[in-house]
């Protein structure tokens, strides 16, 4: 077992962060962000169900921040919502990049890097615009 782990994470291993290139990092972050989004959606559906059923009590109030995103007074919930916005933006633009390469747009290693960083910049700008223009309208500070 330790040989197998050493082979994967060791100096020449495939999962050693020093050996990973941009494509592997993009793939890994895409998978992790997808899992985070699924968990967030499950928590969001549970919170909305609790609100619709008018369930109260300490067990049911832990999802209060998810019932009204961006409206919560708690800055922690607001920070989580902004982080989720960034995760959604990255996951979306990286998915667009994957579809672009699947249909044959941007072939070659240099094109992959240029398109990846361009779309990451688009995601950052889109998230910044949503935060800048959207938060004051929604009651955030």
Which helices and strands appear, and what pairs or packs with what?
Layout: H1 2-9, H2 22-52, H3 64-67, H4 75-102, H5 109-138
Helix pairs in contact: 2-4, 4-5
Discrete helix count: 5
CATH class: Mainly Alpha
What is the straight-line distance between the termini? 52 Å
CATH superfamily: Fumarate reductase/succinate dehydrogenase, transmembrane subunit
- Uncertain spans, ≥5 residues at pLDDT below 50? none
Residue-averaged pLDDT: 75
Would you give the CATH topology? 3 helical TM bundles of succinate and fumarate reductases
Percent helix among the residues?
over 70%
Structural class: mainly alpha
Biggest β-sheet strands, sense, barrel: none
Number of domains: 1
Oligomer: single chain
What would the principal axes of the Cα set say about the shape?
A: extended
Question: Could you walk me through the main structural features you see in this protein, from its secondary elements to its overall organization?
Answer:
The protein is mainly α and 141 residues long. It has one domain (21-138): Fumarate reductase/succinate dehydrogenase, transmembrane subunit (3 helical TM bundles of succinate and fumarate reductases, Up-down Bundle), CATH 1.20.1300. The chain contains five helices and no strands. The protein has helices at residues 2-9, 22-52, 64-67, 75-102, 109-138.
């Amino acid at each position: 077992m330790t040989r197998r782990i050493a082979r994967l994470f060791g100096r020449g291993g495939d999962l050693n962060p020093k050996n990973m290139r941009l494509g592997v990092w993009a793939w890994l972050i895409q998978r992790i962000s997808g899992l985070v989004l699924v968990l967030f959606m499950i928590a969001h559906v549970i919170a909305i169900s609790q609100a619709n059923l008018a369930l109260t009590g300490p067990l049911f109030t832990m999802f209060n921040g998810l019932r009204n995103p961006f409206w919560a007074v708690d800055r922690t919930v607001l920070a989580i919502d902004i982080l989720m916005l960034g995760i959604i933006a990255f996951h979306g633009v990286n998915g667009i990049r994957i579809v672009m390469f699947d249909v044959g747009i941007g072939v070659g290693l240099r094109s992959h890097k240029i398109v990846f960083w361009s779309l990451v910049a688009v995601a950052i700008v889109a998230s910044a615009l949503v935060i800048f223009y959207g938060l004051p309208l929604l009651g955030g500070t």
